[in-house]
Design brief:
single chain; 261 residues; alpha+beta; three-stranded antiparallel sheet; 8 strands; 36% helix; disordered C terminus
Length: 261
């Protein structure tokens, strides 16, 4: 991004952030966000082909949620003449910890592969799951699950079969051909089931804009879901999704038994 262009873009983004300051998280660091946004633009020249106002609109959605592109908590995808804002697996975790009304002790998602042991039960009225993955298992993915543990001792979880996940991808994804789905399918499985779990967690957004941004960040387009996959406009994923980062929270092979109040 040429220096003069970068300066003008920075000024426009700063002015926009100032104009929506009341909708931003209390701890939002405007200067850092602008610097990181410029770095994103420099690393992904495909974004320069999009109208700057549309790019700024996409960037602001991350700002409303307090997500950082450079930390791979969200990303933008060129989509027609605009960009599609999407949260990442890491961003979903940060989001739900920030906005959950019940304080969260831990939240994570896992894929279940052929050969792993997975069982869900109701014991004395309390939900329980038992997951025992095979060491270094690289078998076919047969499903995924997400778990949230609350500080008050409660537990909630969501499960999806591989058929369910593929149905969501094939019928609703804006970017079915993206690098994330093609190269990091396991992490996209985790994001999909985690997003479904998050919808059941009672949240309190700081602003209407934050709620709208999170809804947009699903990466799904239900309005055009009936169009055949081959007829949908192909989009280019210009970010390496958080799916490629393997340092995410892991908690393998743990038996979880708790009460959901």
């Amino acid at each position: 991004m040429a220096n003069e262009v970068a300066i003008k873009f920075s000024e426009k983004l700063t002015d926009k952030l100032i104009s929506v300051e009341s909708a931003l998280p209390k701890e939002f660091n405007r200067e850092r966000f602008v610097q990181n946004s410029l770095a994103v633009m420099n690393e992904n020249p495909s974004l320069a082909k999009i109208n700057p106002s549309q790019v700024i609109q996409g960037l602001c959605k991350a700002a409303f949620l307090g997500l950082d592109f450079m930390n791979h908590e969200a990303y933008l995808i060129p989509y027609g003449n605009t960009v599609s804002f999407q949260t990442s697996y890491r961003g979903e975790i940060k989001f739900v910890k920030r906005y959950s009304i019940r304080k969260i002790r831990d939240v994570y998602a896992k894929v279940v592969r052929q050969g792993d042991e997975f069982q869900e039960e109701i014991i004395d009225g309390h939900p329980s799951i038992d997951f025992k993955p095979l060491p270094f298992n690289d078998g076919d993915i047969i499903g995924a699950f997400a778990v949230v543990l609350f500080e008050d001792g409660g537990l909630m979880y969501e499960t999806m079969s591989i058929k369910d996940i593929n149905s969501v991808r094939n019928n609703y994804s804006k970017s079915i051909q993206s690098k994330a789905w093609k190269n990091s399918f396991d992490e996209m499985c985790k994001k999909t089931v985690l997003r479904r779990l998050c919808k059941h967690i009672e949240t309190d957004f700081e602003s209407v804009e934050a709620h709208s941004a999170w809804e947009d960040g699903s990466g799904m387009d239900f309005a055009t879901s009936t169009a055949p996959v081959n007829d949908r406009e192909e989009v280019i994923d210009v970010f390496e999704d958080v799916a490629g980062n393997k340092e995410m929270h892991e908690q393998e092979g743990e038996v979880i038994e708790d009460a959901e109040e």
